[in-house]
Amino acid sequence: MIYKLILGAFLALPLAGHAQQSMLQSGQLLKDLRILAADSLQGRSSGSRGNQMAQEYIIKRFSEIGLKAFNNNYRQPFKIARKNAADLDGVNLVGYIPGRSEKAIVITAHYDHVGVRKGEVYNGADDNASGVGALLAAATFFKKHAPEHTLIFLAPDAEEMGLQGAGAFLDNPPVPLQNILLNINMDMLSINSKGELYASGSFHNPELKAFVTQVKPRKHARLVLGHDDPQLGHNDWTNQSDHYQFHKRDIPYLYFGVEDHPHYHKPTDDFKEVNQLFYPDAASLVIDFILLMDKNMDKLPPRK
Fold first, then answer.
1. Backbone angles phi, psi at 223, to 5 degrees
2. Are the CB atoms for 181 and 298 separated by under 8 Å?
3. What is the Cα–Cα distance from 294 to 142, expressed in whole angstroms?
4. Does any domain span residue 33?
5. Which of 226, 189, 181 minimizes the C-alpha distance to 32?
6. pLDDT tier at 234, thresholds 50, 70, 90
7. DSSP state letter for 258
8. Interval 26-47: pLDDT, tens
9. Backbone angles phi, psi at 44, to 5 degrees
10. What is the pLDDT of residue 6?
11. What is the CATH number of the domain that holds 134?
12. What is the distance between the alpha carbons of residues 198 and 222, in angstroms, rounded to a whole number?
């Protein structure tokens, strides 16, 4: 009997490892990043053909995953304002997984980047093809593991032009604004040599800190709190990405990202620079946090 128990435990080990690995399909994750950061997309600047190609790929992946679309359309068009030029046509991409509750968690990762400058393509592998790849991985996971709350997966456009896509989404939300309980934003998850993924936002939303600390480190990545105190000056990330639009509307948020690196907003932000051990673990940490919050939203204080 003891022999059978030991043998059973031994045989279960590779299965457990396989289950953990299959939770996040790292091959698909890296493929999504590589495609979105390809030269052919010309840096995905808002209003460009490369940006449209990114839209088409993300929509294809939304459909493959099985996300539902509001009003039968993943696209949410809006106008991008420019100071000394005509407005551009922007497009947010939105899909969702219905939960047992109509209350929603909005998961965001912008897909635009800065395009071509002086003949050089800025591919934005880390900024923010990496966030979109993780967004697609999270959608894949929760499509297979039904959430308690409705999960809205939003890939905003025009983040690089003043967070305009996230603002347009919240100005015309597909669900009542009061139903949005939390924003989880991902922007730059893939280039870090220290194994550090920052979870920023608990300074403004201290009720989230206890949940962040419950997320167990992965082999190649761990969560670090910080970059959200206004006294930090330029090291305060409160207004540095799409989560700021939610913060301005008193919607709690947590922002996941790495610290700036030599490739930030440089033409060297390419797929070859991605840390292929750190990135899947970083994306897994975000999924772990979403799963934790989905099961514990009732423990948060009521929205203002």
1. -85, 140
2. no
3. 10
4. no
5. 189
6. confident
7. P
8. 899 999 999 999 999 999 999 9
9. 55, 30
10. 36
11. 3.40.630.10
12. 8
The token duo for 177 is 């604004």
Which two tokens mark 195? Answer: 């194994």
pLDDT at 26: 86
Task: Please compute Rg for the chain using Cα positions.
Answer: 19
pLDDT beyond 70 at 51: yes
Instruction: Check pLDDT > 90 for residue 19.
Output: no
Residue 15 domain-assigned? no
Name, in order, each residue with C-beta under 8 angstroms of 165's C-beta and a sequence gap of 6 or more: 78, 90, 92, 110, 112, 156, 157, 158, 159, 242
> 4-8, 47-51, 218-222: which range is least confident on average?
4-8
Domain with 60 in it: 44-297
255, part of any domain = yes
Q: Tokens in use for 8? A: 């059973």
- Spatial distance between the Cα atoms of 68 and 232, rounded to a whole number of angstroms: 40
Structure tokens at 97: 């997984």
| Within-domain flag for 126 | yes
Tell me, what DSSP letter sits at residue 231? G
Please state whether beta strands 101-108 and 115-117 pair in parallel, antiparallel, or not at all (unpaired).
unpaired
Q: Would you say the pTM of this structure is higher than 0.85?
A: yes
Question: Cα 288 from chain centroid?
Answer: 13
Mean pLDDT over the full length of the chain: 92
Residue 127, burial from CB neighbour count under 10 angstroms (0-12, 13-18, 19+): buried
Distance between CA atoms of residues 279 and 269, nearest Å: 14
